[in-house]
């Protein structure tokens, strides 16, 4: 049986993410797999690449052939170098930096404008008909 290490596509139409899988070369791209050995999310910044190195080394050792895309990922994680005999192969995958908590800068003024106060309108007096003044009598 010819075994390949390849990508299995998941996700929505313009938001793909992949799993790195070991599968028979005759199965469909997203079909039945033997084992899942990693993840690849290309749309994140930086791209997320996770590979179970022990399982990748095992499958490479028993003759599984990686596709071009998976070979590039294995070179980034250092697994291909270790398979070829380089004991000092290291991962060159960029890791997302931790998010810095927000701190208020006390030197700056607030940009929020206070609500405008409404002017008090004079209250309308009770509806009493005004009688002409009868001061002359």
UniProtKB/TrEMBL annotation:
The keyword Cell inner membrane does not apply. Residues 123-137 have a biased composition (Low complexity). Residues 110-122 have a biased composition (Basic and acidic residues). It comes from the Bacteria. Residues 110-137 are annotated as: Disordered. One of its GO terms (cellular component) is ribosome. The keyword Ribonucleoprotein applies. Pfam families: Ribosomal_S16 (PF00886). Keywords: Ribonucleoprotein, Ribosomal protein. InterPro entries: Ribosomal_bS16, Ribosomal_bS16_CS, Ribosomal_bS16_dom_sf. Belongs to the bacterial ribosomal protein bS16 family. This is Small ribosomal subunit protein bS16.
């Amino acid at each position: 049986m010819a075994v390949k290490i390849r990508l299995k596509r998941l996700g929505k139409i313009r938001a793909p993410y992949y799993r790195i899988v070991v599968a028979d070369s005759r199965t469909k791209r997203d079909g039945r797999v033997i084992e899942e050995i990693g993840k690849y999310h290309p749309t994140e910044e930086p791209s997320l690449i996770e590979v179970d190195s022990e399982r990748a080394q095992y499958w490479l050792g028993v003759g599984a052939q990686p596709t071009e895309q998976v070979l590039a990922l294995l070179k980034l994680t250092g697994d291909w170098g270790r398979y070829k005999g380089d004991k000092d192969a290291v991962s060159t995958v960029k890791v997302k930096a931790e998010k810095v908590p927000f701190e208020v800068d006390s030197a700056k003024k607030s940009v929020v404008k206070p609500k405008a106060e409404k002017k008090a309108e004079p209250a309308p007096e009770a509806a009493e008909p005004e009688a002409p003044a009868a001061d002359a009598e």
